[in-house]
Amino acid sequence: MNGVPSGEVARSLFGAWLLLRWNPAGTQFFDGTRGACIRSFWAAAIAAPLYAVITAISFTPSPSVDPVRVALVFAIGYVVMWTAFPLAMLYVAELLGRSQQYFRFIAVYNWAAVLQYTIVLLATIAADLMPPALGAALAFGALVFTLVYEWFIARTVLQIGLLPAAGVIAVDVVLSLFINAITQRMG
């Protein structure tokens, strides 16, 4: 990866791993600069193959749909997903009086997404191998776990209370549902 030093990738993923274990010390592995925030979007490249496999397992297009079109729609949706929330957070961070933590928050959020995609992929694969009810429960559990992880990150990095952190996650969920609905419909 030309845009980000491998040491920064390892350090950021380790920090995200500590946060996944509910250890707030994980935030110390992230730089709060604009440059670190911008470099954190390389996490999208790392997570892209995970997203592709999750999508391939979860989405079944009709046989009459052009597979190239489906791939393009989902690729565009992926890029929009990676940019919509950070753009919305510019406003939300200002509203919360946390603009000074914005760059660090987005860096943590982006690198943590690699771990979230890994969790969702493992749950998706496991759910496919289980009876439908058990698989659905596992997939739901993985989703809830990743949302709680995001909530912990918002609360810890932005240094905000329980409800404002839940509001940050609600913004992410609403944007994700909207983008996914459009992607699914067009795909």
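The above is record 1. Record 2 follows with the same two-line structure.
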Amino acid sequence: MLNKKNIMNKCNECGTENVDNLKYCHRCGYELPKLKVEGIHNSVQKPTKKVDYRKLTGIIVGAITFLVAYFLVQQLLFKTPTLDKVMMEIASEINKSCPIILDGDTRLDNTMVLPSNVFQYNYSLINMVKRNIGY
């Protein structure tokens, strides 16, 4: 880096080198040419930030891949069954052993899952006479 003390201004008339802060040549008195002041501030270039689009694209693709993988793992490994599915599984298990005689007068024929999370038991009354039921 140049120091300001080292900059010399050469006289166009006699060729004598003069210190840069003089307006006239110290030997011949001729007016010295004006120095272009490209001070230290102009000679030092600020670093420009270039966007590396390949790196940015890699980061975006990596983030999207991570999110998709995370979603798939959550859905496949940690998926909790819905209430409808659980109710249907229970109804199927009960229906495997139906019909079941519950007591001397009642038989469980089957179970069903209806909309709005309704679990329905279908019974038959046995050993009953219609006139004794009380309709």
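Residues 8-45 form one domain.
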